[in-house]
Structures are given as structure tokens and as C-alpha cells.
């Protein structure tokens, strides 16, 4: 009987759970991830999904009733491509020179389409097509009075909010990616993948200037000292203010956020608070943090401000900062890699993550986001057991009861090892990493140079795709590549993390990957990748 | 039979797996049938322990390397010798891998545990009187891990892996070896006596006594 109880105790250790908080409701999208901020408008929550879809599935925009979570409508694009990363834009009714319009939800798609939807029923109001160069629109739109300003793949267009009539069109020489548009008094400002900043006046005059050797993947920030640009470079990122370098930071910068006299930045290494005074903008504080997507702001009742920053790490969660430092981590039961900013309204908060989970919390309920819970019954039980075994060790040592001391000690050490190994196994290989040259294939297109490339060997045939950008770990890159290649994937969540079971339903003896020609001994979510990594999957 | 090379060695076709498992199973039967032991009670002990080992390996598969199999292999090897323990290893490995996943590595697991059994048959965890020595068993719980780990890791070798990569692979497995070691010691301390009782089931009950130190001895 004693052994049976022991076995049961061990089995209880199996389903380790992360700290979690309560919530009002959640919805799981089975065909994609959420990489842009959900919008909360009156009684509705609008959210869009992005890549990782397969077969007949497609990205979608859905509306939910904010209190109940009931789905109000869903609009699917049958023609879009992977990586729909342009944030949704809600525009309230109004009128202008080009016409008058009702409330509309504007959605820009990776196949270059711009659609205006009726937010109450999801019906199409108007639609326009912009150019596609491998992919279409991925940047944030802007509103300029009566028109929507669209940073397209290789140019900029404006459309009348009433009927979608094209009012302006200019072409750029370089392509853009997640290149949102800044609307200023002088016109529109958009960056490109070549580090060139384009400025377009409202009458269509175009000027450009090269900022630096890198990529501009956000809308420039307008300050009293000129435009602020966080340039993504091969060695990290560089911060430019009015074309002058004012700082160097980590890899894959997030989209900066401006609030009053401050600008908040984030990279894979840090979160930064810049302060702009009469003379210049300068770094006031910096905290260690990993974030690569969007940030958002919440104004509290006492007029203090919270900056919510998604943690793009396996543990996920959201860092909640004040103007200068991290105040707390907000966690949920489904935390994982996250790049989408939380959406806020006076009554609720909506969180979305890379697993395609939408999680909405209503304020005023006892499930306030300001009281994050970190309680897990299983985890607590594990630690109680650990502590109990330690106390028993002390007791038996004090009473000189060696046989029982030995038993208690082995139980304690086993529980301790079980708790320590997952984290240890992720860090351990870094002690013995070796640099191996990437395995570039001369037959690949030159455009794939310095981009992320994936090779999947199935039944002896190589399925290759390159030109991918912006993925931070093997899991994300594999999903994006297999979706683009039309290859299905299956995963299993195991003790040590996510495990790839099959490609196209083929499990074989398992699958293993090499990264830049070298085997990795960390899991797919723990293995970070560079902007020019070559990932190769093959049967084990 | 071998349909390609992978990082776990050759990918084995279904037919190949069937053949390998059949050969292994036949080998186990042959090893059990050889009339080298006049006591017949051991067979039921061995089957019972094989069921316990296989079942617990499956149940605890979510916790990598925590299972009583290695300790049982050591005790069976020490008690019944190399021949029976290899049969025991084959039964446990083949039956549990039927649930957990079968492949080329099954051969290496059999080889690795058989090696552990072989060493424990020579360096017994039982003393001269046939009593289980907890000190020896605890020591065996430790030395068995690198031996097992080294042999079972050979399954990943293929033409593309350098010796440096193999060493790195072994190095990166150390945390899991530590887990294996702690699991072995845990099962040795908590279940060793119980396993020994099962191993000694063939002995007439009137000949079994339990010493004050909780170790079973046979007189």
C-alpha cells in the first residue's frame, strides 16, 4: 500500500502547471495565432488571427460580446497569405471632404487587400487591392481626417473612408515589413526593410533618406526634436533621433510607444524608458526584459499610467511597467510566447497570444487584472512535499534515525531534481555551444540571404522556404514555414515543453532539427534563432 | 528492413520492427527456457517484476528517466544472473516500448540494460549470504547511470555526427542522467526491500525471515 501511495505521489508531479490568474472568458482560435492587439469598442471585442493556418482554414477577424464572450460574427479572407500582422483599426462615424461614413472596422491583409467591415455584423462595406510582393500589407494603418493611410508592401496608398476610393498612391523602391505609418503635419512617414525613411506629402511628393544599415519595422515616432526611429540591425538595434544615433540596444526591437514626453522601447534584451526634455531625448531607465511586438498603455482611475509589455519568452506573461520600471508580471493559465499588446477599455481587458487564445477580463469583478494570482494547486503541493521531506530530514537527523533519514533525503533530492531539471536542461547546453557555419545552398535564391530559411525533409524530399523574417524561436519559424509550404504539423505538450510529433501526419521515429548546421539540445520553444538562421528538420 | 538513416540510427520499417521484436522475444523465451535453474518459482517472480517494471515505466513516462527499471535490472541481474536478467530486460523493454514507442533505440536500450545486468551479476548487490546490501544497491544506482546512458546514446550515431558532437550530446544529457540517478536511488531506498521480497518468492515461506535491518535474508 505504501508503494502504491508513493507511485501516486510521483504521478501527481506530472502535470506541472504555471502560475495562473482567473478570468472572465476565453476563446481559442484553432487556426492561427494572435499577434496584434485586440480592440475593445463599447460592447464588442474585435480580434484577428494570423499565420499557422493550413488547408481550407484561413485567418479571420471575429467579434465577441464583451461580457458573455458570445461570438457575434466572423469574417474570413479566402485569399490572404500567412502573417497577417497589420493591427485592426476601428474608425467612428464621421464626414469629411471625400464623403461621410458610419462606424467601420478596417482590416489590412497579407494579400494586399484593405477591407472595411461593418463592426455590428461583419459585412463588407468596401474593399481595395494593393500591390503584393511575396506578401502584402503588414504594417499599422493611420487615419488622416477622412481617409485611411495604408503603408503597402512597396509604397503608400490612401483611401476614402466612405467608399474606399483611392485618393493617393506612391511607390517606393524598397519593400516594407510591419512598417507602420506616422501621420504628421507635413504628411506621411514610412520606413522600409532597407533602412530608408520615406516622407510623402499630402499632395503626393515623395522624399526619402537612408537612416542606417538596418530595417525600420515600426511607424516613426514624432518628437519635438525630430523623428525617432528604432532601427533593427544585424547586431541588435540602434536608436536614431533626427538622424543622429542616441543609443544601441538589443535584437528585434518592439514597436515603440509614445506617451506625453516619454517613449518606451523594448528589445529581446531590455525595456527602456526615454524621456524627452527641451534639449533632447535620453534614456532615463532600463530594465531587463524580452519583448518584440506591440506595447499598450492603460490609464488608471488615478491618472497614473501602466505600460503593458508582452513577454516573448516560453513563459510568456505581460510585464506591467510604470513610467520607469517594472511593477509586476501579469500571468494567466495559457501563457506562452506573446507579441500582441493587451487591448483595454474602461470595462475590460483583452489578451491574445501565439497559441491563438483570447482571454478577456472584466474590470469591477473580483477578477481584476491588478490582483494577479500566482497560485497553482499542483505546484503548491509539490513545494509542500518538498518542504515536508526537508523537515523530515531534519527531524530524523536530530533523532539519529538513519534509515528514515536516508528515505526522507532521497525523497527530498528526487523532488528537488524534478523541479530543477527542466530549467537546468534549457541552460545547460549553453555551456557547451559550438559555432558551426550555416549550411547555405548555392541553389537558393540570393533574396534569401540574411533571412530565415527552413528545410523540411519528408520522405527524402526537401521542402524549402526562405525569405522569412521576425521569428524568434524554432517553434515559431517551423510553424510559419510549414504553413507556407502547406505542410501540417502536430505537437505534444510534454514535461520539457512542446514537442513536434509529425509533419504531414508522419511521425516515424520522431523528428530532429539542426540550426545553422548544428544540432541543438534545447527544445523547439527554448531554441532561439537569428534573423539569418537556417533551420533544417529531418526524420530522427 | 532499414529504410533510411536518421539521428537515432536507421529508421526501421514496420516489418523490420516486427522482425526485431520477434527475435528479441524469441531470445527472451529461449533464455528463460534454458534449464539452468532447478527452482521454478523464480519464473513467477520474474514475470511479476517485469509487469511492475514495464507498467511503472509507462505510467511514469511523463517524468523522464524516473522509473524503477534500472534498479530492478540490477537486482534481477544480481539475484538470478545474466541469463535471466537479459530475458527480463527484453520483456520489459519490448512490452513498454510497444506503448511508449518502438524503434532502433529498443536494441540499444536492451543492450544498455543488459550491460547493467551483466555488471551487477558480477559485482553483486547481494552479500555472501544472499542478503540484499543496501549500500551496494545504492552504489549500483549511481554507477549504472553513466553505463546505461553511454550505451543507449550510441543509437543516435550516424555518419554525419562527429565525435565532438557526440560528446556534446552526452554532456547535454547530464541533467537527465542526474534525474535518472536520483530516481534509481529513490526506488532503491523505498522499494528495494519490497522488490527483494518478490525476488525471493520461490523460497518456502518458512525459510524466510526478516531481519531487524529490514533486509530480507534467506536461511
Protein architecture, described:
The complex is a heterodimer of chains A (540) and B (219). Chain A is mostly beta strands and 540 residues long. Chain A has four helices and 41 strands. In chain A, β16 and β17 (188-191) form a beta hairpin. Chain B is mainly α. Chain B has one domain. Helices cover 66% and strands 7% of the residues of chain B. A two-stranded antiparallel sheet of chain B has the order 1-2. In chain B, a hairpin with a 2-residue loop joins β1 and β2 (9-12). The longest helix of chain B is centred in the middle third of the chain and has 32 residues, at 69-100. The N and C termini of chain B lie far apart (51 Å). The chains are: A mainly beta (540), B mainly alpha (219).
Topology (elements, then pairings):
The complex is a heterodimer of chains A (540) and B (219).
Chain A: H1 2-12, E1 25-28, E2 39-41, E3 44-48, E4 60-65, E5 71-76, E6 89-91, E7 94-96, E8 99-101, E9 104-108, E10 113-117, E11 124-129, E12 142-144, E13 147-152, E14 155-160, E15 166-171, E16 181-183, E17 188-191, E18 196-200, E19 206-210, E20 221-223, E21 226-233, E22 236-241, E23 244-249, E24 257-259, E25 262-266, E26 270-276, E27 281-288, E28 296-299, E29 305-310, E30 318-321, E31 326-330, E32 343-344, E33 348-352, E34 357-362, H2 377-398, H3 402-427, E35 452-458, E36 461-468, H4 474-485, E37 489-494, E38 497-503, E39 511-515, E40 518-519, E41 534-539
Parallel strand pairs in A: 35-41
Antiparallel strand pairs in A: 1-34, 2-3, 3-4, 4-5, 6-9, 7-8, 9-10, 10-11, 12-13, 13-14, 14-15, 16-17, 17-18, 18-19, 20-21, 21-22, 22-23, 24-25, 25-26, 26-27, 28-29, 29-30, 30-31, 32-33, 33-34, 35-36, 37-38, 39-40, 39-41
Chain B: E1 2-6, E2 9-12, H1 14-33, H2 41-59, H3 69-100, H4 105-122, H5 134-153, H6 163-172, H7 174-199, E3 208-210, E4 216-218
Antiparallel strand pairs in B: 1-2, 3-4
Helix pairs in contact in B: 1-3, 2-3, 3-4, 3-5, 3-7, 4-5, 5-7
